Amino acid sequence: MKYYKIKSIIVLTFTVFLFACGTKPKADLVPSKREKPNILFIAVDDLRPELNFYGASHIKSPNLDKLASQSLIFNKAYCNIPVCGASRASLMTGARPTRKRFINAHIKKDEDYPEAISLPMLLRKNGYKTISNGKIYHYKNDDSKAWDEIWQADRLWSYALTESQDIRKNTKRGLPFEAAEVHDSVYRDGKLALKVIQDLNKLKQSNQPFFLTMGLAKPHLPFTAPKKYWDLYNRDEIELPESYVQPKTTPKQAFHNYGELRQYENIPKRGDLPEALAKELIHGYYACVSYIDAQIGLVLEELKRLELEDDTIVILWGDHGWNLGDHKLWCKHVTFETALRTPLMIKVPGKTKGQKTDAITEYIDIYPSLAELVGLESPNTVDGKSFVPILNGQKSKKDWAVSKFKDAVTLIKGDLFYTEWTDDKGIAYARMLFDHKTDPLELDNLAEKPEYQDKVKNLSMELREKWGEDFLK
């Protein structure tokens, strides 16, 4: 049985789930037109744009492909910081990271920027039912006043097998991957899909517009998914990336020891990974992408069955990119394009049908765009710029983005990626420049070449103009 043909099993499981919760699913509910559109907000952890609609034909993701065919796809979308907690807080507030705000995975919006009115808070204040499901902020109860309801599955359900769960209980992170002969709903994201489906059935019966989130845990480590998704890929056909090299011209500050991965069991503590292990990790990542694709498909199918499609904006984003051996790196935490470029698409009923845009878009632009689409004005703490004009067929006037991680700050300007490592006073102590027209894999650092010094000087000035007034404060 193909992995996406599991409807009968899921319907049975879902029915039992709803009855257990005291809710009876209804197929004959009368649709109601709302004054304001609903928003289904799908966040995917560590999802890189290695997907069919971005040109990666080897990925099995039919549901994401279908959603993309109904959406506006952003070819050049970039997170503002490549680490989950900070990226999510920045996106949800529409505010840029600075040297002291939104700096790592463990920050909280409530502590770093308590005065900012978050997107869910803005919507809740304006009549929306707001439900946080899964991983939206890094911490479950961050920005808690913005939500009518917060729900997460137990983290232990990252593993299905008892022996894997026991290892997780007694180690820092547990095993890096698992392929188990189990039903989708045994893992966290399967439970998440059932919860979101339950919410859709409840929300269908209300005239109140909703902001419903689906925060998927995969393909974040550990790469755990039902075995049928692993079976979609032949490991003998998996290859290490073409950019599996660290050129000497690239500053040493650009690389790290991928400590996040090394905390898992059976991963070497230093040095390059053995090739077989590297391919097993890539295999697991692909399996997890196909697994979450199936869960997203179930939710989108239910949205359609309940006749909520025409009233609902669907937006899907990954919180940052991810390295799968690119530059001999794993995980994120760098300012190479592989960690900064992200999948982003938005389905707006009556407006989108598979269009693509090359307009450079930052994640802080998502907040003002959604606010405008539902007829709300963004607060003055929002730094982003709405991309609604692109949805209306206009050409974007913005051709740049700024991303940072620790001391590294990157200006993305057209095809140029310019990064400086700066101290607390904004003085640069290392730099790199890549031209994606001639070097899409970022293997030739141009920043120290004599013929590029005028270009570097101009980009350095522009970086400081665009990184935000509060950047050094």
UniProtKB/TrEMBL annotation:
Q: What InterPro entries does the entry give?
A: Alkaline_phosphatase_core_sf, IDS, Sulfatase_N
| Keyword Signal part of the UniProt annotation | yes
Provide the cofactor list for this protein: Ca(2+)
* Superkingdom to which the source organism belongs: Bacteria
Which UniProt keywords are listed?
Calcium, Hydrolase, Metal-binding, Signal
Q: Which Gene3D superfamilies match?
A: Alkaline Phosphatase, subunit A
Show where the Sulfatase N-terminal domain sits: 37-375
Supply the PANTHER family for this chain. Answer: IDURONATE 2-SULFATASE
**Which protein family is named in the record?**
Belongs to the sulfatase family.
UniProt protein name: Sulfatase
Which organism is the protein's source? Answer: Algibacter aquimarinus
